[in-house]
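Tokenised fold entry reproduced for absentees:

. . .
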Amino acid sequence: MNDKEILNIVNTIKAVENEVGKAIIGQKDVIRQVLIAIFTGGNVLLEGSPGLGKTQLVKTLSKVLDLSFSRIQFTPDLMPADVAGTNIIIKDEKGNSKFEFQKGPVFAHLVLADEINRATPKTQSALLEAMQEHTVTVGNSTYHLEEPFMVLATQNPLENEGTYPLPEAQLDRFLFKLMVPYPNLEELKGIIGVTVNNQTSNIEKIVNKSQILEIRDMLKQVPMSRLVEEYALKVVLATHADYENAPELTKKYIRYGASPRAAQAIISTAKVRAVMEGRYNVSFDDIKYVAPAALRHRFFMNFDAVADDITPEKIIDEILISQLDSVRV
């Protein structure tokens, strides 16, 4: 990419950020990280209490990015066919019966899986193939989902009643897990202004699907130095207790470390973040920025961590510091 192309991408993404910000008050970091995932081509899990604008964010993104939108409200009685679709019997003009596939709501560019942890594991797993392969298999037929395809799932904290923890295999399919914070006083005033006092702005389309795919391809070309790549890989390895350079927090509190998908997620999203900052090279700071969202759902802590009130973020912070020192040495 030349300087003009980089500038065009930066300006385009900033324009998208600003347009989304008209409807979503605050949550600037969440918006930026969701956009990083979109321009990387990965799925996002949004966790937060009810009423924090998670659903509104996804709806607004579909308008700004000019993408088709589908919402699936996950409930305990939702069935896999309600997500992927099913074969139904129809009669042709001659009265003969035949099977015809009726597409489910997963056939859209942006799929909002609302309160995904309220559905049973069987239904949650219906999204696995779509999230990873971007295909849906029903019976003996496989159907391709139109690009760009992305699942943005929301969930309430797991301690709430009537929820089912997501399986490890499905969690690993999410590029990012983002924690949606509660708004501060000024942000809460802005939310009231938009929702109660009707101070809304018209949301305009900024890009289309072909532009999104083009930007994705260009961002993959962003170079990364050997040291920065080594840092990203060491950060992932340091989530494993048997890694020789793992910090003490890892050895004491992590039961299972992150999979290789974590390394893919960190490296690919760091490239997007670098360009969003106006740089055509990835820095250590880019790795540190994307690592928490890429890692917090990919390793699993033991009972000692719960007893000692150790959070994934605390372990990630320790890993980022310790592995940076080892790379620089």
